[in-house]
Amino acid sequence: MSKKIVQSINNGLKGHIQVPGDKSISHRAVMFGAIAKGKTTIEGFLSGEDCLSTISCFKKLGVSIEQSGDRVTVDGRGWDGLSEPTEILNVGNSGTTTRLMLGILATRPFHSVVIGDDSIAKRPMSRVTDPLKAMGAEIDGRENGNYTPLSIRGGQTKGISFTSKVASAQVKSAILLAGLQSEGVTTVTEPALSRDHTERMLEAYGVKVIRDGLTVSVEGSQSLKANHIIVPGDISSAAFFLVAAAIVPNSQVTLTGVGMNPTRSGIIDVLREMGASLTVTNEKVVGGEPIADLAIETSQLRGVEISGEIIPRLIDEIPVIAVLATQANGKTVIKDAEELKVKETNRIDTVVSELTKLGAQVEATEDGMIIHGSQKLTGGEVDSYGDHRIGMAMAVAGLISEGEVLIKRSEAISVSYPTFFEDIMKLTL
Ligand SMILES: O=C(O)C1=C[C@@H](OP(=O)(O)O)[C@@H](O)[C@H](O)C1
Ligand SMILES: C=C(OP(=O)(O)O)C(=O)O
């Protein structure tokens, strides 16, 4: 278990950085390359532990994958190129690997066993295993296939028309991936729009995807063609620096090449509504995904309400938005965010407990939290509980705290941002 001490910054954060590649897109680029025919090349791949788990699982499924820094080559031999693994598929800490891979395995005529770490063992899987079973896959695991370890034997599956209770890109993607090799049409409808990287990237891999509002359909018997993917910077990683620059006095930071997919950019809307001084320049589209440079400086902020359809557009940013809200005038109310309870930790509980240790006034509610603003944060000892986003949110809190903030289990940060502390250092030179 490693510990990290973070101290307040006196002269502000200054300069520019390029945040690492998008985690959601990096996972998908490897997985889709693995089932495509031909050599897929990926630039800007995130070498975080979650994406490395995806590479490791697909290697065990017989796919040849080479990685050199942020460049990855996947030698896909089509859907039939996947073979029965002789080893257990270990997804580590990654929910995305677990759920999307189950969607792919659901139509493969062989047996696999999927395990992950202690956090994965607590995350609900029946949201994907139930519909995949209804399509015809054989899946079992603790509590009837809700928790890992899971065993799956794929086979001949039939298309499904599925209405999801949660706005989850992992659920949507798993079912669509199974649908690509099922009989007939597969349709997924979600209650609010979740991130649409799967839909965009499948099209780039030559798949026909039909989108109609909150409904997405694919026909069966579809194959993928190898592709060249350029991964944008991860807006969920950028979020820590957007917040840090907004609240650390005398800061002026530019983040280059950040993914600005509208299904992910809720943090930008919130920062603007809170009054942050934020400029978006150099907007372009790279490989079907919008990107831009984001310049932000220290700002006077006001509390806001964050609820409804914006929640899936900023779900992973809520821990650091809570830190932001401690520095705003007035209170910030976050609602409709029950999904936080089933992430790497129960992020309602961990955000509230750890910010409270630093002297913030935060209350947990059934579906979110209330953060009281203009709080001076004290130093203290906090825990990431093995959750990368909690670890980084606490580090951002440390940048404005009066005393030192010691973060326990800080190693979790390398799940999505292995160079996080180096990037903070770059902005303090
Ligand atoms: O599809 C993805 O890449 C992700 C979807 C989201 O999860 P849900 O699908 O569970 O909402 C998000 O929280 C996760 O970090 C990545
Ligand atoms: C929830 C997250 O990821 P996953 O579901 O892939 O574990 C996250 O990165 O915040």
TrEMBL record:
Main localization category: cytoplasm
Lineage summary: Bacteria, Bacillati, Bacillota, Bacilli, Bacillales
One MF annotation (Gene Ontology) recorded for this entry: 3-phosphoshikimate 1-carboxyvinyltransferase activity
Alphabetical list of NCBIfam families matching this protein: aroA (TIGR01356)
Name by which UniProt lists this protein: 3-phosphoshikimate 1-carboxyvinyltransferase
Cited function: Catalyzes the transfer of the enolpyruvyl moiety of phosphoenolpyruvate (PEP) to the 5-hydroxyl of shikimate-3-phosphate (S3P) to produce enolpyruvyl shikimate-3-phosphate and inorganic phosphate.
Residues binding phosphoenolpyruvate, per UniProt: 23, 95, 123, 170, 347, 389
Subunit structure: Monomer.
Binding-site residues for 3-phosphoshikimate, renumbered to this chain: 23-24, 28, 168, 170, 316, 343
